[in-house]
Amino acid sequence: MPVQPSPAPAGRRLTWPWFLAVVVVYLVIIQGLGALIGVDTSGSDSQFPTTEAILRNGVIPIGLSVLFGAAVVTWLGWWGNVLNYRVPVRRWVRFVPVSMLVVAVLGVNYPNLADQPLSLVLALIAMTLLVGIGEELMFRGIGVQVFKRAGLSEGKVALWSSVVFGLVHVSNAFGEGAQALLQAVIVSTSGYFFYLCLRVGGTLLLPMLVHGLWDFSLVSNSVGLDPKASPGMILPIVLQVALIVLVIVKRRTIEPTDSGDNSGPHAQPAHRAADH
Q1: Is the Cβ–Cβ distance between 92 and 161 less than 8 Å?
Q2: 3-class DSSP assignment, residue 66
Q3: Helix 205-219 vs helix 234-250: angle between axes, to the nearest 10 degrees?
Q4: Cα separation of 47 and 57, whole Å?
Q5: What percentage of the chain exceeds 70 in pLDDT?
Q6: Does residue 20 sit within a domain?
Q7: 130 by DSSP, 3-state: which?
């Protein structure tokens, strides 16, 4: 049977240079507004010592970046494609979101959170939820669509959307120094895992959930006036390394075969997915 060409995607066109410009504005909102209204925590052992610090350094600027991302998607007319990404994937890839969710729950520093005011914990939940929504909307939502519509294979869509995601975190070097460069590399691999979550779920809501809970687990170790690290914080690091090894070993078996090894009701014919 001849392969029928896919219909042109709906909405306005956004080229990758303009996408990078959108990302710059997104960064200016977070970093610039954070610098203007943020609380100086340089003299504290904690990243977020108080509820006020979380609200002013995180919730407000990140919340505005979410509104900006939503406005861009609305202007482009991409909501249908951004929220639903119907590309098949092998069943084994389901391990990625499942393992990340399990480790995130186990890795939360519950004793440290129990010592904090309820307002601080609620503010932390709000902030990390907004991070998951905002970053996934920008990079697995808009970014994936930009590279997909440019005609790239799924492997290159995953690669470049993850690279941009990692490079964005180099901006943290203004506050964290050279270690932000290592963070950018690590974040790039996390971006690839969030992309796989998108493929598994067929909806942007799954990577949003995984990302938000993952960040909540990590940041739970660095909140409060006297944060105490939990042994559970090692779990996300161990899983990150394990997933990197797993994906490297099985990277050529992410895409389904013609025999129909797909991941669920959103599966499509194998010819729609390009090889990694």
Answers
A1: no
A2: helix
A3: 140
A4: 10
A5: 87
A6: yes
A7: helix
Question: Could you tell me the two tokens for 245?
Answer: 């090894």
Residue 18's H or E segment, with its range, is helix 16-27
Nearest residue to 34 (alpha-carbon basis) of 70, 59, 69:
59
Which positions ≥6 away from 178 have C-beta within 8 Å?
A: none
- Which structural domain range is residue 196 located in? 16-272
* Residue 142 in domain: yes
Q: How many residues does the chain have?
A: 276
For 34-80, write each residue's pLDDT tens digit.
889 999 988 888 889 999 999 999 999 999 999 999 999 999 999 99
Query: What pTM, to 2 d.p., does this model score?
Result: 0.89
Between 261 and 38, residue with greater pLDDT: 38
Residues 6 or more apart whose Cβ sits within 8 Å of residue 120: 48, 50, 51, 54, 223, 224
Q: How would DSSP label each residue in 229-257? A: --GGGHHHHHHHHHHHHHHHHHGGGSS--
The count of structural domains within the chain is 1
3-state secondary structure of 203: strand
| Angstrom distance (rounded) from CA 236 to CA 95 | 14
Burial, 164: exposed, middle or buried (Cβ in 10 Å; 0-12, 13-18, 19+)?
Answer: buried
The reply to whether 5 falls in a domain is: no
Nearest-angstrom CA–CA distance, 91 and 105:
23
Residue 197 corresponds to which tokens in the numbers above? 């979550």
For residues 13 and 84, the answer to whether their CB atoms sit within 8 Å is no
CB crowding 192-220: b at 16 or more within 10 Å, else e? bbbbbbbbbbbbbbbbbbbbbbbbbbbbb
Is residue 7 included in any domain, yes or no? no
Q: How far is CA 208 from CA 97, 139, 141, 146, 238, in A?
A: 11, 11, 10, 19, 22
